[in-house]
Amino acid sequence: MWEKKLKNLETISLFSPPPVLKGYMYGAQEARQARNSNRLLAIRLETNKSCNLRCRYCYAQSGEDSAKIADFNNLKRVIQEAKKLGARSVVVIGGGEPTLYPSFRDLIAYIDSLGIIPVIFSNTVLMTEELAGFLYKHNASVMGKLDSLNSEVQDYLAGRAGASEDIKKGLQNLLKTGFSKPAGPGELRMGVSFVSNKMNLEEIEEIWHFCRQNNIFPNMEILTPTGRANDELEDKLLTAEEIKEYKLKLLEIDRKYYGYDWLPYTPITASGCLQHFYSLYINIEGNVRPCAPTKLDEHPAFKVGGEYPYNINKMSLREIYDSSLFTYVRNIDKMLEGRCKNCEHAEECIGCRGYAYSVGVKRGIDPLEALRMECQQCFK
User: Which residues form the Radical SAM core domain (predicted)?
Assistant: First the structure.
């Protein structure tokens, strides 16, 4: 299953946009329409900090030693508020491993009962066939993990011996259950996250082919200098030239074998990321961010009396959404600097704001200035 298989592939000449994971990302037109009409399309929720892995790139620094969990009733209230703001999907990103959350199944069933798409980020270690069937029944999209086909590399990045075997078993259970069947034209129900770095750079093409041939969304992320990665993988960050080389190679593969065409400069390969326009990220403490690595709640500049005010236990989601800070965030495309300022692809791409923010504040730059810095990953 995990070997490279390129048989029966023929060169394709007609191009179309690649499929996306249903509910996870929204295209440029939908994203801008939502922003311009003051609507959310998605929220991202942390449910617990506990995790059965200790990934060396984890932005949340989660692990087995954390007992923090989100109050289920609070999550239900926030989801209701998000629905009133227009949300069509809830990304249960965990913060740790969401399948360890005590009310995980109740949460997924509740999201589905509101007619909202549950999108689950899981390392798939606990993904039995029965659990996969439950998620399939409740219209979920599932994002698994596959950082490496090499067991030693995967175990190292996941921070636990034997992780690779457990991850692959979970992914196989999702495939058996039917998650490789598309939800509809251009929409998939299964994805795998792959954090590209110097340790797995040579495997990217092989994993890409595996995903394309199995109707799996390849969530190709770039290692970001935030969280645990600052201490454990700082020397594994890719250079701009390495990012350019692998993205252009993947574009060539998609055009030649699968008939897909996409802009190679966007933060998430073959997908783009405009979530600052239409999404809010809510961490385990209830603090609201634009996205996971844009940790506004940890910066002293945004604290009032020593506390971050944009918290779901202090303000309604509507009040946070309408605040001057988050209005600024949603309109960041109008204030971009450097190469991003007058980019010809600005309608489709605003660069990775989370990466720009993380790099900027690490250098001591004002956080709002860091947020509008030119993309640190772009090779255009």
Answer: 35-261
Contact partners, residue 73, CB within 8 Å, separation at least 6: none
Dihedrals phi, psi of 6, to nearest 5 degrees:
-120, 10
Task: Find, among 175, 201, 184, 177, the residue nearest to 192 by Cα.
Answer: 175
Task: Let me know if 222 is exposed, middle or buried by CB neighbors in 10 A (0-12, 13-18, 19+).
Answer: buried
Cα–Cα distances (Å) from 246 to 31, 143, 352, in that order, read 27, 22, 17
DSSP secondary structure letters along 276-314: HHHEEEE-TTSBEESSTT--GGGSGGG-BTTB-S-BTTT
Instruction: Give the integer Cα–Cα distance in Å for 36 and 367.
Output: 24
The strand pair at 89-95 and 117-121 is best described as parallel
All domains of the chain in start order, with CATH: 28-275 (3.20.20.70)
Q: Which two tokens stand for residue 283?
A: 């961490």
Rounded Cα distance, 63 and 265, in Å? 33
- Triad 310, 271, 43: Cα angle to 5°: 25
Indicate the residue type of 127: M
Q: Could you tell me if 262 and 254 are in contact, meaning their C-beta atoms sit under 8 angstroms apart?
A: yes
Q: Which phi and psi angles does 290 have, rounded to 5°? A: -70, -40
* CB distance 167 to 161 below 8 Å: no
Q: Give the type of residue at 361.
A: V
Per-residue pLDDT of the chain (380 residues; tens, 9 = 90+): 555 554 444 555 567 999 999 999 999 999 999 999 999 999 999 999 999 999 988 876 766 666 789 999 999 999 999 999 999 999 999 789 999 999 999 999 999 999 999 999 999 999 999 999 999 999 999 999 999 999 999 999 999 999 999 999 999 999 999 999 999 999 999 999 999 999 999 999 999 999 999 999 999 888 877 677 778 888 888 888 998 999 999 999 999 999 999 999 998 889 889 999 999 999 999 999 999 989 999 999 999 999 999 999 999 999 999 999 999 999 999 999 999 999 999 999 999 999 899 999 999 999 999 999 999 888 88
Length of the chain: 380
Would you state the structure tokens that stand for residue 182, as one six-digit string? 């598309």
